[in-house]
Specification:
Structural class: alpha+beta
Mean pLDDT: 78
Strand order of the largest sheet: 1-2
Distance between the termini: 38 Å
Radius of gyration: 20 Å
Largest sheet: 2 strands, antiparallel
Helix content: 25-40%
Strand content: 5-15%
């Protein structure tokens, strides 16, 4: 399911970023985008370098800025902590050779 941010979501991010700037939060702590996921929860993604924990240090600023845009917002909380994402490559041929079933290794 593709979820596209709407105008209100863009306004939430903009209002939050303006408030963070005005309250002199560190410049790298900013919201990249806000969108509603498949369950109906609004999710916000921070810029590349700060963690959600850094953004949550400014949660009161973000909440006060977001509520006038969307009265349904009642709290801001972190849901996952991903400090690093490592991706390892596996040759595709391992999975598509004739005679393999699923993830059986070809030899």
């Amino acid at each position: 399911m593709l979820v596209v941010p709407n105008k209100m979501d863009e306004e939430i991010a903009s209002a939050g970023n303006r408030a963070l700037f005005q309250q002199q939060a560190p410049a790298h702590v900013r919201i990249m985008n806000v969108k509603k996921n498949a369950r109906g929860t609004k999710t916000a993604i921070t810029r590349q370098n700060p963690t959600a924990e850094m953004a949550l240090l400014n949660r009161d600023i973000i909440i006060k800025a977001a509520i006038p845009v969307d009265k349904g917002i009642i709290d801001v909380e972190g849901n996952e902590l991903w400090e690093r994402l490592q991706i390892y490559t596996v040759p595709l041929v391992r999975y598509i050779r004739k005679g393999t079933e699923g993830l059986q290794k070809n030899e």
